[in-house]
Amino acid sequence: MKTFIVERYAKTGAVRAAERPEPEVEADEVLVHVEAAGVNPLDSKIAVGEFKLILPYRPPFVLGHDVAGVVARVGSAVTHFAPGDTVYARPRDFRVGTFAELVAVKERDLALKPSTISYEEAASLPLVALTAWQALVEKGRVSPGQKVFIHAGSGGVGTIAIQLAKHLGAFVATTTSTANVEWVKSLGADVVIDYKSEDFEKVLSGYDLVLDSLGPDSIVKSLTILKPGGIAIGIGGPPDPIFAREIGANAVVKVATRLLSRKVRKTARRLGVRYSFLFMTASGAQLREIAALVDTKAIQPVVDRVYPFDETLDALDYVDTGRVKGKVVVSMG
């Protein structure tokens, strides 16, 4: 079958087209014929080796973290899906590989595709929607009337997180570039800060939760806008010791996370607020909840561009520019 693989970890040229055998299907897995696959910054970060300590994939391996498609066949222990079902998923770590004609997905990671949207729109959702859900619902427990600040409102996570936070009843602030201010407001943001002309930490205060995708320097500033007891959830790092324990990391990774997050954790303690690192996990149950919100129009997918599958490398290059509004998708067409 046609795939795009990481042949070796490298700054350039890590990903190439390749023919690979069809994946083996374990008893608790579903073989999905891929109709479309989402493209994420995570794909490039994996390919260059940025996550080797946390996710030690052994090249060559098929890349890709989002899928929408049709069930081709099911394993002997699968009970909730049948051939012909239309589905979507973010396969769990170490079972990724959606830049392919077929991918095997654990039954627990899979959900029926929202019925009101296309395969391309569905493929744009799993990773970013699960990230937003786990930050705002599972970890942040956002409730009506709370104030939520979401960095990078025009990005993949940002566009979905804004809509989900508004659905949860929150007052939402975000950042974006000058050209996207009005567009991001149309997603539901109450306050939009043009990061080219304003510093968010000088404008905002008294927030219950910050969802920060930008990394350590931004996280330290984000902590200062929280009210006492508030929480900053980082999806761009730094990873913290709690995360290291949750994944059963070795001693080297545990020490590294402690050192990398020390400044952020120290600042949080001084300000009387909390910091938590989030590395999204696969969940078919949460995708079912998200599908219901999509079908009732509480959440709308945001797709910037759709590339043919053969142009997956071009799609990755476009994502790497950092100028994407929402998501990029490759389609089997």
UniProtKB/TrEMBL annotation:
Top-level lineage group? Bacteria
Q: Which InterPro entries match?
A: ADH-like_N (IPR013154), ER (IPR020843), GroES-like_sf (IPR011032), NAD(P)-bd_dom_sf (IPR036291), YIM1/Zinc_Alcohol_DH_Fams (IPR050700)
Q: Where is the Enoyl reductase (ER) domain?
A: 13-330
Q: Please name the SUPFAM superfamilies in this protein's record.
A: GroES-like, NAD(P)-binding Rossmann-fold domains
UniProt-listed Pfam families: ADH_N (PF08240), ADH_zinc_N_2 (PF13602)
Q: Which GO terms label this protein's molecular function in UniProt?
A: oxidoreductase activity
Q: Where are the transmembrane segments?
A: none
- Write down what this protein is called: NADP-dependent oxidoreductase
- In which organism is this protein found? Aeromicrobium ginsengisoli
